[in-house]
UniProtKB/TrEMBL annotation:
The species this protein was found in: Lactiplantibacillus garii
Pfam families reported for this sequence: EII-Sor
Record-annotated membrane-spanning stretches: 41-66, 139-161, 181-203, 210-225, 231-248
Keywords, in A-Z order: Cell membrane, Membrane, Phosphotransferase system, Sugar transport, Transmembrane, Transmembrane helix, Transport
KW Ubl conjugation (keyword) present: no
Transmembrane helix is among the record's keywords: yes
Cited InterPro entries: PTS_IIC_man
A single GO BP: phosphoenolpyruvate-dependent sugar phosphotransferase system
Full protein name: PTS sugar transporter subunit IIC
Top-level lineage group: Bacteria
Length: 267
């Protein structure tokens, strides 16, 4: 199995749209920071959506604790998913091993994004000239459209060449070396990276008041493993618990405010 020309072009076009931030305004940033959507697009294009989502779900875990100060990511999730998912599908990789492929690809993608920012520095001088002349059309051109075109010119050919010619080579290497020690190591490392992502997320949002909910969710998954409960069911249960928690806090706040008003009236 190889990546056909139209498949490589469609996936590359999606990545170019995401990285150039032209889709749905601010929503593009979320698409860039979340590999799930890129993995879904790759799965649809390659005709194996279910397995693609299992693979990209493992990749998503390592980005749960990744932050983007100033919009710069240490690793580009969209590029990582766009390459790792086709490699895993063509090479028959397990999701954990696909994570180990996604990490170096994402790091290379981060350098490419930095190069895009470097190219845009030349546009800043043009923006200054338009600002001095109060040229609103020129500002729209230099602030929005030129950076978008720069993003397309950079990411579209790069991703197309990578997907069309690079992915088959990597997947062939994977097939010829599957079951060896090196891929066992990749699988172990991939599982560890996912754990780090979860741990970072817990560290960031792990307020003492919320720790019982985290422990409850963990032990529920352990106890109910044999029941084959889906993530949708867990999401519904979590939503109900969150609603009860918020409702209880609101009622407590109203009661406290009522008591404070009663105390003020007495004085």
């Amino acid at each position: 199995m190889t990546v056909q020309t139209w498949q490589a072009f469609v996936i590359a076009l999606w990545v170019a749209l995401v990285e150039s931030r032209v889709l749905f305004g601010g929503a593009t940033t979320t698409l860039r920071f979340t590999p799930m959507m890129t993995g879904m697009v790759a799965g649809l294009v390659l005709g194996n959506l279910s397995k693609a989502m299992m693979i990209v779900a493992a990749i998503q875990l390592i980005y749960m604790g990744v932050f983007s100060p100033g919009g710069q990511m240490p690793s580009e999730p969209a590029i990582a998913a766009a390459v790792a998912v086709p490699v895993a599908l063509l090479g028959g990789l397990k999701p954990a091993a696909a994570v180990a492929v996604a990490v170096p690809v994402g790091l290379l993608g981060a350098y490419l994004y930095q190069f895009r920012l470097f190219l845009n520095t030349f546009v800043v001088h043009l923006t200054d000239k338009y600002a001095e002349k109060l040229n609103d059309r020129g500002l729209t051109l230099s602030i929005i459209w030129i950076p978008v075109l720069v993003g397309f010119a950079l990411f579209l050919p790069f991703m197309f060449v990578t997907l069309k010619f690079g992915v088959p080579v990597i997947s062939a290497f994977v097939k010829s070396n599957s079951g060896t020690l090196i891929f066992h190591i990749l699988t172990v490392i991939g599982g560890g990276l996912a754990s780090i992502g979860i741990a970072l997320t817990v560290y960031v949002i792990g307020k003492k008041n919320y720790i019982p909910f985290f422990l409850l969710a963990y032990f529920m998954t352990v106890m109910f493993t044999k029941l084959n409960i889906t993530m949708v069911t867990y999401a519904i249960i979590g939503s109900i618990l969150a609603f009860i928690y918020v409702l209880g806090k609101n009622e407590a706040a109203k009661l406290a405010a009522k008591n404070n008003n009663s105390s003020d009236d007495e004085f």
